[in-house]
Amino acid sequence: MNTLQRYIIREIVPLFIFGNVLFVVFLLLEKLINLADLFFTKNVPGLLIAQTVIYYLPSFLMITIPTSALMASMVGFGRMSSDSEITVMKAAGAGGVFFLKPAAAVGIGAFLLSLVMSVYLMPLGSTLAINNLTKIAKSISVKDMKENEMYDEIPGLLFYADKRPDDNEFGKIVVIDKNTGTIITAETGAIVPSEEAALVMNFSNGRVVAETAGDERTVVRFGEMAMNLPFELKDKFSKRDEYFMTMTELAENFGEHVNYRFEFSKRLALPVAGLLMGILGMSLGIFFHRSGRSIGIPLSLGLTLFYYMIFFTSLNLARAGAMDAFFAPWLANIFFTAVTAVFAYRVLK
Amino acid sequence: MRNMGRRFKIILAAAGGVVLLLALFSCSGSDKRVKGYVPPSNVFEITDFEMLTGREGANYRLTAVKASFNRIENIAELTDITVEFEDGEEKITARADRGYYLQNRYLVAEGNIRGKTDDLSFETSESGIMNYDFESYTGTIENDVVCMQGSNTIRADRAEMDFKTKITEFKGNVSISYFM
Amino acid sequence: MKKFHVYFIKQFLKLAFFIQIFVVILNIVANTSMHTKLMAKHNISFLSLLVFESIELPSAIYESMPMALAITTMVTIIMMIRSNELLAYVSLGGRLRDLLFPLLGIGAVVFCILMFMADRVNPWVENARKKYETEQFDRQPYVTKGKLTDVWMKDGEEGFVHMELVDPINREFFDITFYRMDDSFEIDRVTSIEDAKPRGGKWELSKIKVYDIKPRPELILTQDNNTVESRLFSDLADLPVNKPKFLSLGELSKIIKLLKKQKLNAAAYELMVFKSYGHAISAVIIMFLVFPVCVNFSRHSSYIISAVNALALAVAYWLSVSSFQSLGKTGVMSPLLVSIIPNILFLAVAVYLVYRRETAS
């Protein structure tokens, strides 16, 4: 790798990093508001949220690395083409292989990074993220309950309070158990979340009005009432999903379902896309410099979309049994290898 | 580029600071985690417990100094109990040291049962037991039952009462002392 | 409108189109790849999943449009600086602050688009998506104006009312229970009604039972039917019956009015309305923020550094808008304030940056 080639790599790598950051920001955009909610209204510790976002990064990066590789090498080589630096290098005797080396180096870098993500970090990150989500789901809180509000964020219960002197203190509070229609009214009440997804409530000077059998009504009056109401959270984060399984676990389950075979093969196929996109970006960047950069961008959009369309179609075929599950993820790569070869040949001959 | 970079970092830090400030500001009054005594899950610990309920014309009042109600099993453990029955004709009250109120229907009371109606009173020893079914208006008292009406006294091991028919049946070592 | 401004707008819109498409593709690919589990769970084909994700496109565009415009501003300015067009403009006496006007024009148009989307398109998307999911995934018939079950409301100062079923189409209520509260904030009377049906301007109630709760629970009155005037039933009958995300801004305002009449806190709904305005204005402010940061005429400037600075500022703005929104939910600040403060704050930063940029260059 001589100085010029290292210069090309130094031109492309910052773009690659910036591309990944940009795409991850876009993917995180919508979730940002929910995360802010978790922090402010559900009183989930900020560290736990930041940790969960970081654990989820590998699964985002699996998607953004190939796209960033394509965009980075295309914009990098495109910029050098339009500034005639490529022409100067060619005039100085740089042949086809000269440009292929830095592009392939960036592609291999993307390949290795993506491989580490898909084989090791993504399953590990997803599992840790699910543990955090379960912990986050456990942090039940009434912190965002306001005065004179019919507050029904807590499953099965409805709260109402005339006064709220402090975060956990309430004046003239009503708690309605929606399942039984039982109503608790109290002069004052304190509600504090406990560690185990439960609310500890202390009421004073109040009454409970409940409907008993035969349409009769029962009233219980109390001086003090303390209760500890746990909330059973349906465990919607099932761990058996193939995303969370390591390669060895997938290998052990090959016979069970086509998903595991497809997932195993996919984790090796997607990183290769990073390599292909790195080289393809180079060809596009150089090839389209004459008509300016604006053609390059829509073309890379189309190619990215096309790649994922083939990929998801092969997933569908594999599930329907019309294609072998090991081969299916590689279909898109085969097609893109051909496209890359054609473009590279035309540009570098 | 150099001087703009430095100034820009200050602005960025300011923007970041604002967000951090908000975060700290808003959770300064953050939820206090639970301190002190926490009752077991699904248990209501009640002091000065008083329950009023009715069944087809009959009204009940059940009080206890302390009650611990398990909402899953629908059982309330009561301490220092008084129970009142009133159906427009008669009013019966009784007390006991402790007991259970089960499934919104049965009362099981133990220890020093004392009770009275308009014209008679009854009591048991320290190990007395009283069972009462709010739905069928029937109940039993056991262990050295003594029933007094004026100067007349009935002693027995067990008394079975029916508040509807107003009949009380005494069983086991029954002895009566009766003055004309 | 100077020629340069027209040229600037044309470049801007061309790039905006591609960048928005790119964001949409990224969104679809990410959502689809994360939701492939649905294919197994509901036994549906990939095509149905793709249609399901594509229905959410308008909402994805709505959410990402401000950030996409920020990136567009960045790319437009950087390309103009690289081609020295901006330098020529400034050299011929053009002032940077004048370029804010085209951005303002674009911002105004985007404001109207985003407001229309918040009012009409997003509710339609949520409805269409729910309908598709119910019919294709769960294979159940979907009733758009569904019934409302297990409704709890506060009846002004009177107390609370529970309705097992509200049928807005026929304007009927079933299994209604009124819990009246006395001055010492205790329930003193419970009235249960089997159903309530409209009769002219009044309401015909059937199978009424009234219990006194104080001093002891006692059934004091039973009636077969009775026709009464009820403001509560009339208000509730024409209340939009869907979840907030299915409602247009007009319907949300109707709910706010009713809640206020019931002396209930409507902050949650007000927040949604102000959030739509805040989101629409954010497109203008984020463009104003990114514009000065990308303008850099020095010879050894790197467009990567400008891009990173612009992205960092845009994310900081987005983060503070989200944080303020959540603060509004906790009730620490009023919904109006939390929608205004971050925008005013960062507008001031933008104006300051433009001023600094203009005096520096």
Automatic annotation (TrEMBL), chain A:
Membrane topology term: Multi-pass membrane protein
A GO cellular component annotation in the UniProt record: ATP-binding cassette (ABC) transporter complex
Matches recorded under Pfam families: LptF_LptG
Record field: transmembrane: 12-33, 53-77, 98-122, 268-288, 295-315, 327-348
Name the record gives this protein: YjgP/YjgQ family permease
Main location group: membrane
GO biological process: lipopolysaccharide transport
Localization of this protein: Cell membrane
Lineage top rank: taxon: Bacteria
Automatic annotation (TrEMBL), chain B:
Coiled-coil region list: none
Name of one Pfam family that matches: LptC
NCBIfam families linked to this entry: LptC_YrbK
One of the record's GO molecular function terms: lipopolysaccharide transmembrane transporter activity
Annotated protein name in UniProt: LPS export ABC transporter periplasmic protein LptC
Annotated organism of origin: Geovibrio thiophilus
Top-level taxonomic group: Bacteria
GO CC term, one of those recorded: plasma membrane
Stored InterPro entries: LipoPS_assembly_LptC-rel, LptC
TrEMBL record, chain C:
Spans through the membrane: 12-30, 99-118, 277-295, 302-320, 332-355
Compartments, record wording: Cell membrane
Keywords, alphabetical: Cell membrane, Membrane, Transmembrane, Transmembrane helix
One cellular-component annotation, GO: ATP-binding cassette (ABC) transporter complex
GO biological process, one term: lipopolysaccharide transport
Domain of life: Bacteria
Pfam families assigned to the protein according to its UniProt record, in alphabetical order: LptF_LptG
Membrane topology annotation: Multi-pass membrane protein
Descriptive protein name: YjgP/YjgQ family permease
